[in-house]
Amino acid sequence: MPYPKLDRDQLAIKKLGDRKNKVYIEKDHIDVTQKPDHLSGLDKKLIEKTADRIRLARHEKRSVMLTFGAHTIKNGMSPTLIALMEEGWVTHLSTNGAGIIHDWEFAFQGKSSEDVRENVELGQFGIWDETGFNINLALIVGAYEGLGYGESVGKMISLEGLQIPEISFLYDEASAKMKTNSELAAAAIDLAGTIQKYDLKGGFRSIPHPFKKYSAQARAYELGIPFTGHPMFGHDIIYNHPMNHGAALGRVALNDFLSFANSVSNLDNGVYLSIGSAVMSPMIFEKALSMSQNLIMQKGGHIDDHFMLIVDLAKSDWDWQTNGEPPMDNPAYYLRYCKTFNRMGGEMHYLTADNRDFLLAIYQELKGK
Q1: Could you tell me the CA-to-CA distances from 50 to 35, 87, 151, 175, 262 in Å, in that order?
Q2: 205-244 pLDDT, tens digit each
Q3: Phi, psi dihedral angles at 278 (to 5 degrees)
Q4: What does the pLDDT read at residue 369?
Q5: How far are the Cα atoms of 25, 144, 235, 277 from residue 255, in angstroms, in the given order?
Q6: Alpha-carbon distance 6 to 334, whole Å?
């Protein structure tokens, strides 16, 4: 017998416009010309080394992957992310579910970041209609279209809306594809059920995004650069909304993981930057690298010359590159991101820095030369 489940349809859902926010993107975004602070001489040398490796990777047409936690978006760094894409320095960006949400809320209403403590106390944290409705609908539509998580949301922002098929067309397609493409058939049925439940009209559903110039995932969609989202069930506020659809989310998230893995497979002589993502980035990287090695080894090759720079605020006096993995009685052993990446072969360095300082410094170093 299935366990009892909470009924999200009974939630009292408020309008996003009623929410107090702490970050306003027009006021709080950081311009690419702002000078970074708090970087030592050794920090700058490591950033110069990283920039040289990025230049080499671009020359060799190898992957330059930039993976980051949600605070990179919330800290107003989208102009730098966009500049890195537009000027051809990065080939793949990835973040977690919260990074997707902050980017979308900035594009949609120009502000984001609620007071978690206050709103949990009020029974209101994350229970906002527009965020839950629109992002989840984009993912359900994207699953039907065969898109990834970040690609689905980026497309909605860029086009300022979603194309909603007619229910009759979806059921006909599901019937026709049941034997030849069961995934498409299932995704079509899921979308049809959502359209029916919420009485959505077929055709283009306009969703204005007046601040979309600040959206990194929309710009990535327009440039054809993978911007992948890597969520975990229950971690993000979109799970609070009854529009949330587990099967659709699984489809788009899997598409993004495989896109991420494809970029990892091109990482020999490439660069992997992991910024402030203590769990998501190392966990998906190790699986993606293992799969990539498996396929490349079948052809007689091996990924050995990848350069990894891990950036976070936690201090670590351990020299990972020289000394390898620390013993278990050393606190550095429990820096999961360092420990995982140190086991991934290639060349790994750790930099203690704020994501704002690092991104500004690496962009300005690349642009300066």
Answers
A1: 18, 17, 28, 52, 22
A2: 999 999 999 999 999 999 999 999 999 999 999 999 999 9
A3: -80, -20
A4: 63
A5: 30, 12, 19, 20
A6: 36
Residues 139, 134: Cα–Cα separation, whole Å = 9
Residue type (1 letter), 162: L
Interatomic CA distance for residues 97 and 222, integer angstroms = 20
Longest dimension (CA), the chain: 64
Residue 3, token pair as written in the block: 């366990």
Q: What is the pLDDT of residues 234-289, one digit of tens each?
A: 999 999 999 999 999 999 999 999 999 999 999 999 999 999 988 899 999 999 99
Question: Looking up tokens 């995982």, which residue turns up?
Answer: 340
Q: Which residue has the tokens 């960006």?
A: 93
Element counts in the chain: helices (H) and strands (E): 16, 10
Question: Closest Cα to residue 249, out of 257, 174, 127, 279?
Answer: 257
How many whole angstroms separate alpha carbon 337 and alpha carbon 56? Answer: 25
d(CA 6, CA 367): 52
Tokens 């959206």 appear where? 215
| Mean pLDDT of the region 331-356 | 89
Angle of helix 97-109 relative to helix 129-145, nearest 10 degrees? 110
Global confidence as pTM: 0.95
